[in-house]
UniProtKB/TrEMBL annotation:
It catalyses: L-glutamine + H2O = L-glutamate + NH4(+); hydrogencarbonate + L-glutamine + 2 ATP + H2O = carbamoyl phosphate + L-glutamate + 2 ADP + phosphate + 2 H(+). GO terms for biological process: 'de novo' pyrimidine nucleobase biosynthetic process; glutamine metabolic process; L-arginine biosynthetic process. Residues 26-167 form the Carbamoyl-phosphate synthase small subunit N-terminal domain. SUPFAM superfamilies: Carbamoyl phosphate synthetase, small subunit N-terminal domain, Class I glutamine amidotransferase-like. The lineage of its organism: Eukaryota, Fungi, Dikarya, Basidiomycota, Agaricomycotina. Its EC number is 6.3.5.5. It comes from Mycena pura. GO terms for molecular function: ATP binding; carbamoyl-phosphate synthase (glutamine-hydrolyzing) activity. This is Carbamoyl phosphate synthase arginine-specific small chain. One of its GO terms (cellular component) is cytoplasm. Pathway: Amino-acid biosynthesis; L-arginine biosynthesis; carbamoyl phosphate from bicarbonate: step 1/1. Heterodimer composed of 2 chains; the small (or glutamine) chain promotes the hydrolysis of glutamine to ammonia, which is used by the large (or ammonia) chain to synthesize carbamoyl phosphate. Keywords: Amino-acid biosynthesis, Arginine biosynthesis, ATP-binding, Glutamine amidotransferase, Ligase, Nucleotide-binding.
Length: 435
């Protein structure tokens, strides 16, 4: 009898799932600029939007994906059939040495719209406070469910990322827009729209000072730094870092949306930094592309990009926790990449290569260059996704601490080497030899 009740427990727990309420039968459609249309039902905000239609193969963490600033201006199609089954958590956390003010990747939803095969009308999770539909309505983001996301994904894989329009309500029955009516977000500087306007600090009592250039940063990047005892100063994407660089022990460049060519101002400033500054530099996603362009590489638009938590990359070189020859599974979200060229710019070498499409997934400075600079196209901090490469944050901060320690020792020796006019010439020679 007791065993019989135990068997019923999982069924009982499913019955306690919170019901988000039935979806109102409002029509919703996705129109692509290439002529295809997909008709379903609306959830979320009752408004129509334009955007760039992309797909993500992420199985979980739809809340983190939707709040990732790299999805700004994009209509996000989830390939996983059921989305919303564990609801949405309360998106607030302390700002201290363990967190950065939010639970998810930013304060609000960043994508323009969401397309799913089946949106969950019941959700169950101990942190959930609302349904996906309610969350989308609250943030004025439209969604469409009841469409064949497999067919949409196959189209996008064949023809590449495609401009689209989500039409809701009466507008769903209207003819699709003409090709010249679609809005292309890649023509705008999305980084400038999403980056912080003023510098701000996190964990100011940390043991190592890191400057962060914000191109549209995920919160978990900041979280990964401060949990390793870094004092972080977040700066606008085009901030004149060179005017304050001697105050910091390292520079970090974050992810961000859109075309890196819109950020040439940051590229040129970073080129000066790399030429004149010896402290470690690390970049992720957009930050990786900015580093590559500053090094002399070109960036290009991929056919459909890489978005998901299951992208395998091969390490071509060893550095810190990364071992050459090993394959790492990574989380990614990008439309642009660096061109692989031979020869590589002097002082640089490929770091990672994508196992699926052979695109450049990372670059690094060579040992001969005397620099400590890395860039990776994937997200070591993931959230969600695999944590195969999370220790790259530890590697970066360890290098920053080692460089800081060496600089302090050099400064101490230089102070000792300052010779008073009263000291005899022989003493001056001895000090020089010791130096």
């Amino acid at each position: 009898m007791f065993t019989h009740h135990l068997i019923r427990l999982p069924r009982l727990s499913r019955g306690l799932a919170t019901h988000s309420g039935p979806l109102v039968a409002v029509p919703g459609s996705l129109h692509l600029t290439t002529g295809q249309s997909f008709n379903g039902r609306s959830f979320g905000a009752h408004k129509s939007v334009y955007g760039e239609t992309v797909f993500s193969t992420s199985i979980t963490s739809y809340t983190e994906s939707m709040t990732d600033p790299s999805y700004r201006g994009q209509i996000l199609v989830f390939t996983t059939p059921l989305i919303g089954n564990y609801g949405v958590p309360h998106n607030s956390a302390p700002t201290d040495s363990q967190d950065v003010g939010v639970v998810l990747e930013s304060q609000g939803i960043q994508c323009a719209a969401v397309i799913v095969s089946d949106v969950a009308e019941k959700f169950s999770h101990h942190t959930a406070v609302e349904s996906l539909a309610s969350w989308c309505r609250r943030h004025d983001i439209p969604g469409v469910t009841g469409v064949d996301t497999r067919a949409i994904t196959r189209l996008l894989r064949d023809q590449g990322t495609t401009l689209g329009r989500v039409a809701i309500g009466a507008e769903a029955a209207l003819p699709p827009p003409k090709e010249n009516e679609f809005w292309d977000p890649s023509k705008e500087n999305l980084v400038d729209q999403i980056s912080t306007r003023e510098p701000y600090e996190l964990n100011p009592t940390g043991s190592i000072k890191i400057a962060v250039l914000d191109f549209g940063a995920k919160a978990n990047i900041m979280r990964s730094l401060i949990r390793r005892d870094a004092a972080v100063t977040v700066m606008p994407w085009n901030y004149d870092f060179n005017s304050v660089r001697d105050q910091y022990d390292g520079l970090f460049l974050t992810n961000g949306p859109g075309d890196p060519l819109h950020c040439m101002e940051a590229v040129l400033k970073l080129r000066t930094t790399l030429a004149e500054w010896d402290s470690p530099v690390f970049g992720i996603c957009m930050g990786h592309q900015i580093i590559g362009m500053a090094a002399g590489l070109d960036a290009y638009r991929m056919t459909f990009g890489n978005r998901g938590h299951n992208q395998p990359v091969l390490a071509l070189a060893s550095a810190g926790s990364i071992k050459a020859g090993r394959v790492y599974v990574t989380s990614q979200n990008h439309q642009y990449a660096l061109k692989l060229q031979d020869p590589f710019p002097q002082g640089w070498e490929p770091f990672f290569i994508n196992c699926n499409d052979s695109s450049v997934e990372g670059i690094k400075s060579t040992a001969e260059s005397g620099k400590k600079v890395w860039g990776v196209q994937f997200h070591p901090e993931s959230a969600g996704g695999p944590l195969d490469t999370i220790e790259m944050f530890t590697d970066f901060l360890n290098e920053c601490r080692a460089h800081k320690s060496a600089a302090l020792k050099e400064s101490a020796w230089s102070t000792v080497g300052v010779v008073s006019p009263m000291i005899k010439p022989r003493a001056r020679v001895v000090v020089a030899a010791a130096t």
